[in-house]
């Protein structure tokens, strides 16, 4: 498991969204499968994950990621993260340079959903912590986080509607 200590991190934002999909495992795996983000998350250009390491009930890996504006070379950032997966309840993503931490949690609710006809939803919470007080960075982070969570929701709904509820098969197999 990865250790993270940075007293300068600021609890920047807590985003909570109820996703109208009762398949919590699907939503969890969409968030956990960073290698496929570029298929449906705006601004994600690439991600390469190291081999999974097991630590009791937790699964850990390091990922090299590139985000930015596609086609604009100078508007890209490549960075490394350490991720700890606690299936199917929590994902913690820590920047290797300790500049940010994201903590994702997942919860199933029995609220009915008229949009999909399903009898439950998945509540997704993401706490983002940044090592900056820069208002522009915080604004960009808020916008980026909202866009990312909406992308997960759209992809989960697409998979439910197309009867393709399979998610990250390499990860799902590892979690069994």
Note down, in words, how this protein is organized:
- The protein is an alpha+beta fold and 176 residues long.
- It has a single domain (10-175), classed as Alpha-D-Glucose-1,6-Bisphosphate, Chain A, domain 4 (2-Layer Sandwich), CATH 3.30.530.20.
- The chain has three helices and eight strands; from the N terminus they run βαβββββββαα.
- The chain has helices spanning 24-32, 135-161, 169-175; strands spanning 10-19, 44-49, 53-55, 58-68, 76-86, 90-95, 100-109, 121-130.
- Helix 1 packs across helix 2 (135-161).
- The longest helix has 27 residues, at 135-161.
- The protein starts with 9 loop residues before the first strand and ends with a helix.
Topology (elements, then pairings):
Blueprint: E1 10-19, H1 24-32, E2 44-49, E3 53-55, E4 58-68, E5 76-86, E6 90-95, E7 100-109, E8 121-130, H2 135-161, H3 169-175
Antiparallel strand pairs: 1-8, 2-4, 3-4, 4-5, 5-6, 6-7, 7-8
